[in-house]
Sequence to fold (298 residues):
Amino acid sequence: MPEQIGFVGLGIMGRPMVRNLMKAGYSVTVYDIVADAVEELASEGATPATSSDEVASKTDTIITMLPDSADSERAILGEGGVLAGSKKGSIIIDMSSIAPSMSQKIFQECASEGVEMLDAPVSGGEPGAINATLAIMVGGKQEIFDKCYDLLSVMGSNVVLTGDIGAGNITKLANQIIVAANIEALSEAMVLAQKAGVDPERVFNAIRGGLAGSTVMEAKAPMMLDRNFKAGFRIRLHQKDLRNVLQTAQELNVPLPVTALLQQMLGSLVNDGEQDLDHSAILHFLEKLAHVEVKKGS
Ligand code: NAD
Fold:
């Protein structure tokens, strides 16, 4: 009998993660507030549910993959939420990228009901979710991590316990600073080349193998050159992550001047209606300042 897994949150990331679980032989019960997403996966073999507590009542391990802190709080702790349907000893794995302090709050409430919890946000984007190559950064108890390791390994290729509950999301915030700063630097470089009349595609090909080369460059430069800004990872989600970075940094009295600047840029793009574009559209912010459009073959 295959292991029963619950999954709540069937967006860009959740859908391919569920597919990989089913491919590995898990029986997955799914729920999302968007009915189409539930129906799509039900047509592929998942068991549909009509609420988060129904998912939890039918399974012992429940994964959540939701946009932000308030969504995880609502879907897990709220009325009709995962915790309400969970049995003692069940494990909730919140794979959403949320504020570490919210992971700790959810953990405490789960603990008071005898329910275990890990925070396990991911990096690697939609391609990583599809190819099961996500980096999964986990916070929680060692023994619960050990129990969930095989399950998490179905969705990712690098599964690491970085500390107690909340440590997964601290690690994710560190990751998001680096990714945003890299995309911004890449955008500045592309805009400079374009304005100088040097083909940005040739610049990319010349430098990708050197010290400036990076996973971010490999993923985002082709999108910029093709002017394909379809998410991927939405601007509004990166804005949310940097907000969580800055809030956490403030609580710890850690100045993060570049991250604060990046957050201003993302805010400006949201004002321009670009919140649902991929974060490679940070390029637009720099293009507007320089009055230039990056194009390959120019
Ligand atoms: P998404 O917006 O595509 O999907 C979120 C899903 O959650 C949606 O289908 C939404 O309807 C559902 N949802 C919201 N509230 C709900 C509730 N109360 N109950 C049930 N379902 C609910 O987002 P995504 O891109 O899949 O990202 C999910 C998380 O993963 C975010 O925290 C994001 O920051 C993180 N993440 C995303 C990427 C990426 O490239 N997209 C990469 C790494 C991490």
